[in-house]
Amino acid sequence: MTTSTTPRPPEPARAPDGPLLGRGYAEDREATVAFLARTEDALRAAGQDRAATAGTHTAARRARRRFMEHHAAALYAELTTGHREFLRLDDLAARARELVPGLVPTKSQAEEERRRPQRDKEGRETDHGIFFWGLLRDDTAGPHLMEAMRRPTPRALAALPAFRATGRADLGLVTVERRGDTGEVTVDNARFLNAEDDLLVAALETAVDLVLLDDAVRVGVMRGAPMTHPRYAGRRVFSAGINLTRLHQGEISLIDFFLDRELGYINKIFRGLSVPDTGADWLAEPVEKPWIAAVDTFAIGGGAQILLVFDRVIAADDAYVTLPALREGIIPGAANLRLPRAVGNRLARQAIFADRRIEAASPEGRLLCDETVPAGRLTEAVAAAAAELANPAVVSNRRVLHAHEEPEDEFRRYMATYAVEQCRRLTSDDLVENLERTWISRKR
């Protein structure tokens, strides 16, 4: 005799030492929160013994990753009130720590980590990396988050009326000045040869917003200010890349630097500002303008990276470009995505893997720079280029060009991978060793 039984559903999979998932968003969230609370208890019990805490951190991060794999869309919808709110990265993280305790660092954990030099960090920012990896890779949450990061910042909106009235804004490390129909962004972090850190990234995003929001501006220009450093006194410098002093001190953050930089001011230069659809036009479009980079002396690291999003790059004929991120131990922003398209795979690998120096006036340099001129003629050349790019048809052409040379979803998926891989690099032993060697050599 045979009996008929209803097949039982498969048991939800259990990760080693992890929470049981597969029972729906609410139940999986509850299980994950409970598991992460237990891992925090274990970490507190282990104290500062890194060997003892490594396995616990790994189990907790595996649980976070699995939760984000299963529920990024549902979580993001709840964080943004059904996609009605457009939140920046730090605001999303703040809400997530309340909604799903343990998913991202608490405020006190983040502050404690921030106070530590890079060599002593526990690696809590890795948990932010997992969180944003999950959101960015999701086809519903990711595009909405990308749009949120292209909205004007509150600081820029507050500064806009005065900028429109006076044509000038002093943002500390950056100034913005309207000259005719050109908005000139001048970077003046002279102490560090215009190397970027969290504060400079925030100032640059405000500056880019102001140029894009001011209706009287048709073209944006970015250039470095004259330096006070003894070696370069009186000379303009475009950028010395990431501020290694701040990184050594532990003051370069995943959110405020590595992610805000790529998803904020650089993406706004490339794709324009995202603005609410007011119904004023039959097709809502971002606020875009052409941009010119004026490169004096050198564009190192992050300075080389951002050249890849400008519509026109004009360099002094004695300037050069290098990309030393691998030697420093980090990933060079979105250069791994964009540089092969600009210079070809072989030269891109030489630049990324071997820190090849590229002279602006060389044949290879012409793949990155549209024009090289004597340093004394750079201002004149930039003005001539700005006059050309002020043509109203440029914006429509750049929009079509960018949409097909780098679709936004391609960039979004790259940034999802970047979020976790950069975290791996920031907590790696070789990066810390590189920073220590650099710091010691500078003190000699």
Main attributes of the structure:
alpha/beta, disordered N terminus, 18 helices, 7-stranded mixed sheet, 3-stranded mixed sheet, 9% strand, 444 residues
How would you concisely characterize the structure shown here?
With 444 residues, this protein is α/β, with parallel strands linked by helices. The chain is built from 18 helices and 10 strands.
Compile the SSE list and pairings:
Elements: H1 25-46, H2 50-79, H3 89-99, H4 107-115, H5 125-137, H6 141-149, H7 154-166, E1 168-170, E2 174-179, E3 182-187, H8 198-213, E4 219-224, H9 244-248, H10 254-271, E5 291-295, E6 298-300, H11 302-307, E7 312-316, E8 320-322, H12 325-328, H13 335-343, H14 345-354, E9 358-359, E10 371-373, H15 378-389, H16 393-405, H17 408-426, H18 429-443
Parallel strand pairs: 3-4, 4-5, 5-7, 6-8, 7-10
Antiparallel strand pairs: 1-2, 2-3, 8-9
